[in-house]
């Protein structure tokens, strides 16, 4: 999660941190969620730093289709995000050009928030559209994911879950990850 203090009211790291992670973990898949006001100014810096997927907010893109095509032309995966108040129709025209859609189930900017259950309707809508149109994008859910909500997100159609506080807020990271995995597998199998 990359935050600039403008698009969201918090600040985190940038390309130098990505470059440092890449240097010590050359085989690790790096996905950067850019919660920044002007992401197109920084895509080259993040690509040069070693990201393999950039996730951009539709709310700040002048031309989402062109942005997704540019990322793919640069040889990385292209993903798009919708905030809670942004309707799926705002990204409908680019679903055939994305590798992943991220549905924010909290207002972006701060960890530890509770999942907004109504946002799972967006996940269901995306899963339906993906199936009906025979598309291949993944559906990622970020915000309020924990052992109680992971299964709900998977059951709604999510393929990828982002969990911060549920993992790093616990005493045993490996155990927290296993609990999330188990919760997702249990609900996803139904």
Order of helices and strands: EHEHEHEEHEHEHH
Secondary structure: helix percent: 25-40%
Name the shape in a single word. globular
Got a strand count? 7
**Major sheet: arrangement of strands:** 1-2-3-4-5-6-7
Low-confidence stretches: none
Radius of gyration: 16 Å
Helix tally equals: 7
Q: What class do helices, strands and sheet pairing give?
A: alpha/beta
Strand content: 15-25%
Biggest beta sheet attributes: 7 strands, parallel
What is the distance, rounded to the nearest whole angstrom, between the alpha carbons of the first and last residues?
A: 31 Å
Mean pLDDT, nearest integer? 89
Characterize the structure shown:
It is built from seven helices and seven strands. It has 190 residues and is an alpha/beta fold. The longest helix is centred in the last third of the chain and has 16 residues, at 173-188. It is globular, with a radius of gyration of 16 Å. The mean pLDDT is 89.
Brief account:
It is built from 7 helices and 7 strands.
Topology at a glance:
Layout: E1 2-3, H1 15-24, E2 31-35, H2 43-49, E3 53-57, H3 64-73, E4 77-82, E5 100-104, H4 120-132, E6 138-142, H5 150-156, E7 160-162, H6 165-168, H7 173-188
Parallel strand pairs: 1-2, 2-3, 3-4, 4-5, 5-6, 6-7
Helix pairs in contact: 1-2, 5-7
């Amino acid at each position: 999660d990359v935050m600039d203090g403008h698009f969201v009211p918090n600040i985190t790291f940038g390309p130098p941190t990505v470059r440092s992670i890449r240097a010590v973990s050359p085989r690790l898949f790096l996905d950067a969620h850019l919660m920044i006001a002007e992401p197109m100014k920084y895509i080259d810096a993040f690509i040069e730093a070693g990201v393999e997927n950039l996730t951009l907010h539709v709310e700040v893109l002048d031309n989402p289709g062109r942005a997704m095509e540019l990322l793919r032309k640069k040889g990385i995966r292209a993903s798009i995000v919708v905030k809670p108040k942004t309707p799926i129709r705002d990204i409908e025209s680019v679903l055939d050009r994305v590798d992943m859609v991220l549905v924010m189930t909290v207002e972006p900017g701060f960890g530890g928030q509770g999942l907004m259950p109504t946002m799972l309707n967006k996940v269901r809508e995306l899963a339906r559209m993906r199936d009906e149109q025979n598309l291949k994008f993944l559906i990622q859910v970020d915000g309020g994911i924990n052992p109680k909500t992971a299964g709900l997100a998977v059951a709604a159609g999510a393929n990828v879950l982002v969990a911060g506080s549920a993992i790093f807020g616990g005493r045993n990271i490996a155990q927290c990850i296993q609990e999330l995995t188990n919760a997702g597998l249990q609900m996803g199998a139904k």
